[in-house]
Amino acid sequence: MTLSPALVPQGISHSPDLSAMPKADRIKHHIRQLRTIALHQGIDGVKAYKAENPEAASLRIQSSPTIYDPKPPGYPDALASLVAGWFASDTALRSTNRDDVARLNTRLGTDRFDPDRHFSKPLSKSVLNRIEAVFVANGVQFDRAACSTMGKVRRAAMQAKSGGQATATPQAISRQGATVTIGQASFPVEHHGGHYCIRVAVAGKRVRVRLDALAEVISLAGFQSGAGVPDTPIRSIVGDSAQNGLADTIPPGTRPKTEKPPRQSPEDLAQDEPPLSLSDRIRRLPRANPRGPAIPDGQDPLALI
User: Segment Disordered: which positions (predicted)?
Assistant: First the structure.
């Protein structure tokens, strides 16, 4: 762009000399420049650049900036507090969506949330994270796919409190053959790396959980025999060890495929046992057959045959 002569002496310009560049490189340069100008200077800056660089006149710009009205401060906390109230009070749970949205507006000092529609709008990831923490704190499994709006979150809370959804208690963990059931979800048992495990969906990805590790975590939480699971230790439900926790309970023909352990490298083998010296290897050679009787001196050995 042309600068004022008062700022730049005659014959001096800050614009790069593009004459020596191939046309393809010059077009790339114009695209980069126009991208920055469109972002910071808008259409007026784009027109000025194209007037100064006719070669860029044919370039087209499509800009769709994202403009939104941010939620008031404390919005995620307010929704999480609302859900916590649903678990703590049946009266709060039976409240209508309109009443809860009205209370939400009052708490946040706004009137922007429509009482008739707000609880039908999708929830953001950050809000879902806060609500999921409330469900977990109340021992209830949280299904993000089924709880995409506040209205659906309320229905999930109602179902959990009415006993329609299994809560995350030790009684909800059981094992039948090659299947482990946690709450209402069933997980096939796999054998991986010498350990029995199940796969659990975490943030859209399936993650292996070793059964012995699961048993240890539940035990550390204090759920032992006689403390939440009468006459049935948690370890006997999940599996006593990774090696034999399910070895005797998987029906014939349904045993998961066993993966071969990784081969040891020569370096690993060398660390397991120090190499033998030459004398040690000689001593370990099998002993030869005993020699026959000694041949008297001066006698032909062939005569003994």
Answer: 1-20, 234-305
Q: Which is nearest to 196 in space by CA: 243, 234, 235, 240?
A: 243
What would the two tokens of residue 232 be? 């049935």
208 domain residue, yes or no: yes
- With bands split at pLDDT 50, 70 and 90, how would you rate the model's confidence at 245? very low
Question: Hunting for tokens 């659990």 — which residue is that?
Answer: 200
Count structural domains, the chain: 3
The Cα 274–Cα 161 span in angstroms is 63
In a domain, 191, yes or no: yes
CA distances (Å), origin 31, targets 2, 3, 50, 249: 18, 21, 11, 66
Q: Average pLDDT, stretch 191-215?
A: 85
| Residue 297 falls inside a structural domain | no
The alpha carbon dihedral of 120, 129, 133, 188 has a sign of positive
